[in-house]
Amino acid sequence: MKRIISAVVALLLVISVIPMQTRAAQGGKLAAITFDDGPSAEYTPKLLDALKARGVKATFFMLGQNAQSNLDIVARAYNEGHEIASHSWDHPDLTGLSDSGVRNQLDSTVRVLSQGCSGVTDFLLRPPYGSTNSRVESLINVPMIYWSVDPEDWKYRDPDTVRSHIVDNTYDGAIILVHDIHGTSVDGALMAIDDLLDMGYEFVTVSELHRRREIPLENGEWHYSCKPNGTDVGPIPAPEITCAAHGAKMLVTITGQSNAPIYYTTDGSTPKQNSAVYNGPFEASYDSTITAYCAYDTNGVRSETTTMLPGEGVVGEVPYIRLNNGNVEMGKTTEEGVIFYTVDGSPVSLSSAVYSGPFPMPKGAYVRAASGGGFMKLSPENVVYCSERGTMFADMEPGTWYFDSIDRLAEAGMMSGMGNSIYAPKTDLTRGMLVTMLYAYTDVKLSAGWKKTSPFPDVEQDKWYAEPVEWAYRNSIVTGYKDKTFRPGNKLTRQELSVIIDSFLTYRGNTLPRGASCSGKFGDYGMIHHWALSSVEALAQAGLLAGDGKNVKPISNATRAEVAAIICQMMDYEAAHPVKP
Ligand code: NI
Fold first, then answer.
1. What is the spatial distance between Cα 320 and Cα 343, in angstroms, rounded to a whole number?
2. How far is the CA of 155 from the centre of ligand 1 (A)?
3. Among 87, 179, 182, 223, which one carries the catalytic annotation?
4. 59-62/14-17 β-pairing
5. What is the whole-number distance in angstroms between the Cα of residue 126 and the centre of ligand 1?
6. β pairing state of 290-297 and 282-284
7. pLDDT one-digit tens code per residue, 17-66
8. From the CA of 207, how far away is ligand 1's center (Å)?
9. Which residues of 348-357 are buried (b: 16+ CB within 10 A; e: fewer)?
10. Which pTM does this prediction carry?
11. Are 289 and 351 in contact (CB under 8 A)?
């Protein structure tokens, strides 16, 4: 499969995991420790824990019959980078068996080990007791591994003795024999490993030991040790993983040692013999965990594992969400990452849909979006609510007392947001805003080329509220202040609002009922200024102005939410009291 990496990809932010090399300096002392006769359900898992904690790789010469009943342990040891090898099916002296008996011992063991090692078929062999003859050897077509350090742990059964026998006899390039079917052997071996690590030894598998010193493992030949020969090609470097945002998927690039195949997975599992082998950049979903190692042989001749978790990099930019002709549009200012979104209210994740272009607004639903991917960390979410009427709100929840009023006015084009779907319902409305809303409501517009006749020097003709203010002045809906100013940016008190609404209804030919005082209705009645009293009372009587039930708060500023509610009441009143022509 060939892929062309476009120039666009190169622009996108790329996040890499560069593995740390923690191995001992190459050219140091090497040793291969081998564990025979297992695996043991009792001791081998504990041994694997201890080896993992020490970063030590070992070789396990397993008996087929024990492997068969402990396949999970075989798989674990293989996955953790140890070398799995054969020690026959049930430990006979092969020289005492017929040709077919020998073949059965070897073949049946390979079959079982292969199951635990995801299809590996070439296992080193250690014939039981190290015993062969020329007839047996002629039947063996894999390398045979003897040992150079034998602590006779099966005989002493004492951790300290096992430890000292190993430490005293190990030399650079040694192959150490221990058995993981005795607790005393495991304990002694681990103590010896700690001593030898302190002495500067690096533990490698048998195959890796030969690769490092470039000593070939010959089929059908015995191998005892790898004494220093001036050669150490060093450990295989762990691969570097790079992920870039790439539309609906991310593009994964893995680099490693040139001639060692790279095995990888995208589900977080350790690569195995039957895992994908890297052959060029590939696409993966953004929630993938990429795990890779370089391996000449997945069975113990491989690098450390490199893992890249999703969302490990820098934080993405919060995307914008906007409405354009009934379609939802999203975007961000940088090219880095992609935008993920949901329309069902669920939180955005790296497995959410990737935005690829405008889509019809989902009515009555939340749209949530965040950017990131290519292992960028997801940004915080931008959340908007799309109303049934087809309006988009970023700062209002359906169900609030003012939601329906603002939604209704927004749909009618009478109330616009403050940008980015922000409606700021709790902020105060200005005089310019109110007049603009009323002008949007009326059908009668100034003729094109309207000329300013209003006396307000603080209303410049190129301002968004200039035409509405002109219209309101001409129709006596507003009169301005005594100093001839209109003060369009001033906040509007509730009594000012009442006067303007009253004037607007009068202009529309819809006279409110009058005469009933609301002196007993509102506790703060005395605060209403004389010039507003008639209007406040008329609106209250018509049910357009309710206050909070106790007070009408005449000198409080009117919020955008309050104004929206009153205008909706006014529209309902007009609908219920049509003006007779
Ligand atoms: Ni044995």
1. 15
2. 13
3. 179
4. unpaired
5. 8
6. unpaired
7. 555 444 444 569 999 999 999 999 999 999 999 999 999 999 999 999 99
8. 19
9. bebebebbee
10. 0.77
11. no
